[in-house]
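Before the break, one more example. Copy the sequence into your notebook; we will annotate it together after we see the structure.
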Amino acid sequence: MSECTTCGNILDHNPTGEEQILCKINNEGGLQEGFDILPVLKEESYLKAFPEERKARAFLEFCADGDVGAILDLVKSGDDEDFRNNGDGEGATKSIDVLRYQDPLSSLDSCLHVAIRNGQEDVAWLLLLLASSLEPHRFPSDVTQAAKTLGAVRESQMGKVDIRVLENEEHLTAEELARKLGGRWEAWIERQILTPVFDGILPVVF
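Here is what the structure looks like once it is written out:
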């Protein structure tokens, strides 16, 4: 064990060997005991060093929670003033493509990885609409209709990375992660919805 330099609490380890700081949290949800606050501290420390990534990290949270409205609002906001980086003191900004951002604090997962891990099918469809080259006719009619109602606009993907090709730290694409998880994603795998396209050619699946 070792001691947290911030609060003095003892760093313990969970059954998988990962460090954790267990504490009591009392907020609007009531008293919660055994809350591991270490991930929160790590994220806040990271964002102090890289404030330009705050918007991208908020985007990943929306994907995990299935908040389609918040996802679209954030994408439409562009380079929102609230998320701009002026960390060098001279007002410099760094633009980050939130749709293709990969989380350095969570195995380099992309937004599509996050949606799949959390079972968010509606979010996965929206992300494919916004950041993949999946052919229009392969989207369910209710998905395209909902996208129109919400004002989702599919821009040209020419020259952009198809999010289906992004690999996380474990070298898994979103499709490979979905295959590993199974369940609701089995139909997606069978239909090759998540299969990355390389130079317009689908890889052959045996």
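The first strand starts at residue 2 and ends at 3. The two ends are 48 Å apart (CA to CA). Try to locate both features in your own notes.
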